[in-house]
């Protein structure tokens, strides 16, 4: 393909941030810090390797995803506990915060709600930053490993992809058929996963996660949540992400109550203020 004579000039055009966040309400990290100081553990869910489990978290509670036995990544779905149509919107979270998220950033919900579902209050992998390959942890760019893409690329029927894990877990938790549960499964937060895009071809890549037992990602629940977490069949995703041979480990979800009085003056964020008239 022949380049135009002004090709270099076109490439040299400076980028513009699509969604400047200067006017985005900043989370009150002093408030979250005070909440964290008085937590009491009230429940936990162990997510077995190559499986998924659900947990219910009430607005104002804190929940933590922890590596407990070995390096392991997890795929997280979130819904409004009382309305599954409001769910985590990875694309808009990515547009607002970037390809990877960490402390002080939020997980946003789908249209027409578009409000914070959870705020990240602690990240023991926050030190990792962006490595020399352009990789970082906790991405909102990967969609989840799934049996459809697996079948498309390599044939066969593999049932422990994160999409299927999440489908089974949601169906079991709600007591509904899997066919009814599956449409609610959505693009994930890839907890602990180390990913990026190659510089030469722009392809999504993964590499061995830096997570170790004891590392965790912690959230403050801004609304009542139903969380579903899959312990990915790729383990630390150092070689493949749909496998019966990768070393895989459980993950732990812990739920904490804040101290009495620590939420005084706080309330869940309301749904987005757009009037939904769409110009009519």
Distinctive features:
alpha+beta; six-stranded antiparallel β-sheet; 16% helix
Number of strands: 13
**Outline type:** globular
Which sheet architecture does the biggest sheet show? 7 strands, antiparallel
Number of domains: 1
Distance between the termini: 46 Å
Helix content: 10-25%
Uncertain runs are none
Rounded radius of gyration (Å) = 20 Å
What do these coordinates show?
This protein is of the alpha+beta class. The chain has one domain. Strands 2, 4, 5, 8, 9, 10 and 12 form a seven-stranded antiparallel β-sheet that branches. A six-stranded antiparallel β-sheet has the order 1-13-3-11-7-6. A hairpin with a 2-residue loop joins β4 and β5. The longest helix is centred in the middle third of the chain and has 13 residues.
Strand and helix map with partners:
Blueprint: H1 7-11, H2 29-36, E1 40-47, E2 52-57, E3 62-67, E4 74-80, E5 83-87, H3 90-97, E6 106-108, E7 116-123, E8 136-139, H4 147-154, H5 162-174, H6 178-181, E9 189-197, E10 204-207, E11 216-221, E12 225-231, E13 251-257
Antiparallel strand pairs: 1-13, 2-12, 3-11, 3-13, 4-5, 4-9, 4-12, 6-7, 7-11, 8-9, 9-10
């Amino acid at each position: 393909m022949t380049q135009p004579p002004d090709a270099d000039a076109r490439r040299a055009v400076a980028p513009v941030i699509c969604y400047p966040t200067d006017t985005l309400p900043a989370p009150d990290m002093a408030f979250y810090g005070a909440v964290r100081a008085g937590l009491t553990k009230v429940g936990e869910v162990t997510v077995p390797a190559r499986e998924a489990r659900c947990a219910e978290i009430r607005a104002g509670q804190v929940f933590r995803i922890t590596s407990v036995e070995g390096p392991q990544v997890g795929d997280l779905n979130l819904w409004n506990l009382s309305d599954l149509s409001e769910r985590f919107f990875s694309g808009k979270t990515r547009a607002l915060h970037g390809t990877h998220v960490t402390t002080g950033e939020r997980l946003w919900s789908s249209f027409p709600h578009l409000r914070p579902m959870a705020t990240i209050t602690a990240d023991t992998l926050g030190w990792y930053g962006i490595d020399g390959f352009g990789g970082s942890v906790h991405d909102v760019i990967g969609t989840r490993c799934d049996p459809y893409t697996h079948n498309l690329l390599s044939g066969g029927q593999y049932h422990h992809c994160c999409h299927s894990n999440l489908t089974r877990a949601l169906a079991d938790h709600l007591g509904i058929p899997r066919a009814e549960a599956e449409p609610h499964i959505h693009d994930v937060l890839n907890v602990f996963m180390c990913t990026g895009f190659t510089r030469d071809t722009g392809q999504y890549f993964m590499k061995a996660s830096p997570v170790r037992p004891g590392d965790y990602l912690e959230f403050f629940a801004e609304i009542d949540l139903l969380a579903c977490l899959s312990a990915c069949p790729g383990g630390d995703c150092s070689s493949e992400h749909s496998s019966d041979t990768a070393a895989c480990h459980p993950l732990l979800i812990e739920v904490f109550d804040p101290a009495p009085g620590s939420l005084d003056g706080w309330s869940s964020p309301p749904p987005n203020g757009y009037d939904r008239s769409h110009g009519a």
